[in-house]
Amino acid sequence: MLEIKNLHARIAEDGTEIIRGLNLTVKAGEVAAIMGPNGSGKSTLSYILSGREDYEVTEGDILYNGESILELDPAERAAKGIFLAFQYPVEIPGVATMQFLKVAMNEQRKARGEAELTTPDFIRLVKEAAAELKINPDMLKRPLNVGFSGGEKKRAEILQMALLAPQLCILDETDSGLDIDALKIVADGVNALKSPDRATIVITHYQRLLDYIVPDTVHVLYKGQIIKTGDKSLALDLEANGYADIIGEAA
Ligand code: ADP
Ligand code: MG
Ligand code: MG
Q1: Entry's InterPro entries (predicted)?
Q2: What is the number of the ligand 1 atom nearest to the C-alpha of 221?
Q3: How far is the CA of 206 from the centre of ligand 3 (A)?
Q4: Which pTM was predicted?
């Protein structure tokens, strides 16, 4: 589903190279974890996949279902089923969460040539998904993420993901700022979306989330490259021994 080949990318504003020859393949049905020390480029990679314009790809390619997506803007990538749950969800004052969800869902339907959702259908879908994630319906009336707690923001991200049912889900440190109960609810929400034609990339600094979202593959990102790939035991190994050995081996 996703094939990243020798990707090099830099910050558009000052030309600093952050991604330095990164290779990664993720198959349909797979849950891939990306781990790595702070500042390795994990969030940068997720932004580049989502098409954010602050970064420039200088070499290599990103193939999604066999086609390069480098020329697509964020909306086009979203319409093709790529979804990024942010490490730091953006506050959108003045736009009620419900309204935001409705626009997002209808934009996706429009891009696919489907009719707009009727209001009763939309409300039913949102209520069902919100109940699964134990989201208080009153939260949906408030402006998106404004004044939400860390846990509420992450749940709102997973609610968007559940409603848009993307093909490629990228979760950037969804575990940060979550207590254990919220972590389980969010993990259940992600696991409920698991399917043979969907892939999930779970970016995390800690192994803890991977007790609840069990990965098929674990990749270590360091200084803009994948320096090691393994199965879920690699995450346990990192938790026990830290990154130093693997970084040393790679060097
Ligand atoms: P991680 O998510 O693995 O902690 P990031 O992708 O956030 O790492 O950051 C990788 C490196 O790139 C860090 O050194 C960070 O300071 C730098 N960086 C990323 N984006 C920008 C930016 N827009 N401006 C300046 N530095 C940036
Ligand atoms: Mg970080
Ligand atoms: Mg990050």
Answers
A1: AAA+_ATPase, ABC_transporter-like_ATP-bd, ABC_transporter-like_CS, FeS-cluster_ATPase_SufC, P-loop_NTPase
A2: 3
A3: 12
A4: 0.91
